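Quick one, probably user error.
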């Protein structure tokens, strides 16, 4: 049976594009399924869950699109500045970061802002949620990497990285993470919070994606996508993906192979077939679609592959070291619904509830 699959891309032209992919032929075809023109400025971030696609923009709003009803679902208006980063945790929570320095946690049930935290003294440039849902990482223009404990809502760890990082990503197993500064990828170990490897890309990096727990796909300001082994700190494969620079890369796993999806300034979204084995061979092109737009970001909506979050009790861990040990033992827990408490430790505690404004259409 063919997989249900849609490619969603944001553009400078303020429009989000959705393409339904037909996967039952040798060559995959992508057919235009929806366009969502809800923003008044270029789209800067996109994320997909089982039910929703969300887009963030320089117009300071997060727009919601209901994939089940195929309709607009309103806007989230909490941020004061460009939305820089969006990521779902399962289907229950959305985390957002912006130029206003805020990290916001949203419940997807009623689309209310459970909490917002002043995460950085400048912009939040990127965020990533740990596979367990217990931790979030953020990087910002204050040259820090911050770890947030989502169980007790505290800042678990602050690291001065002395440079402005623009991407942070957990590995699928959650035992390491990568931080990107310009053309460099630093690989960090979770337990020690220290750099265990560095890889340098020939060009400034625009997007990274873990294909498995060791292979990282890296796209930069050229037409080449490079794959690196984060454990061995070496490039293992590279291929020309587009005619101009690659803006975004995503991936998902089919039965016996990995599919990489790339989006470029040239307007094309391409799907590549890759077998993740010991000796990596260059991927083969599965299919492509020309959006005729200047693409900025990319997400894959594939409901059948969305991670199922198991209901496990959250472990009581008080220090970042204890939390790291706990996380290495358990793979997934649910963020305690309606109880995510994030507090800015630089300010006195307030009992006031931080709510988000939401406009339903």
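Nope, works fine. Designed sequence:
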């Amino acid at each position: 049976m063919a997989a249900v699959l849609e490619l969603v891309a944001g553009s400078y032209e303020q429009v989000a594009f959705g393409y339904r992919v037909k996967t039952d032929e040798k060559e995959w075809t992508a057919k235009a399924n929806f366009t969502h023109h809800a923003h008044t400025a270029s789209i800067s971030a996109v994320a997909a869950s089982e039910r929703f696609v969300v887009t963030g923009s320089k117009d300071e709003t997060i727009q919601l699109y209901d994939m089940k009803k195929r309709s607009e679902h309103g806007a989230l208006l909490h941020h004061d500045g460009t939305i820089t980063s969006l990521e779902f945790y399962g289907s229950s929570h959305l985390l957002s970061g912006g130029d206003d320095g805020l990290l916001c946690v949203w419940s997807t049930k009623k689309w209310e802002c459970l909490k917002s935290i002043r995460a950085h003294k400048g912009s939040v440039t990127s965020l990533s949620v740990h596979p367990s849902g217990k931790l979030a990482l953020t990087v910002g223009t204050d040259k820090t990497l911050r770890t947030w404990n989502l169980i007790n809502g505290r800042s678990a760890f602050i690291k001065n990285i002395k440079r402005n990082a623009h991407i942070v990503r957990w590995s699928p197993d959650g035992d390491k993470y990568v931080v990107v500064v310009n053309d460099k990828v630093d690989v960090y170990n979770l337990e020690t919070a220290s750099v265990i490897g560095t890889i340098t890309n020939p060009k400034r990096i625009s997007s990274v994606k873990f294909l498995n727990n060791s292979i990282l796909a890296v796209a930069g300001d050229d037409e080449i996508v490079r794959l690196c082994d984060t454990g061995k700190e070496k490039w293992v494969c590279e291929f020309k993906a587009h005619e101009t620079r690659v803006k975004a890369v995503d991936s998902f796993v089919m039965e016996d192979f990995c599919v990489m999806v790339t989006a470029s300034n040239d307007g094309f979204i391409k799907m590549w077939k890759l077998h993740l084995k010991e000796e990596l061979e260059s991927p083969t092109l599965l299919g492509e679609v020309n959006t005729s737009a200047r693409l900025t970001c990319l997400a894959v909506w594939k409901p059948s592959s969305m991670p199922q979050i198991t209901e496990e009790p959250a472990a009581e861990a008080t220090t970042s070291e204890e939390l790291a040990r706990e996380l290495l033992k358990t793979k997934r827990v649910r963020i305690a619904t309606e109880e995510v408490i994030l507090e800015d430790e630089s300010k006195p505690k307030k009992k006031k509830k931080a709510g988000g404004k939401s406009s339903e259409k």
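Confidence is low (pLDDT under 50) at residues 308-317, 330-361.
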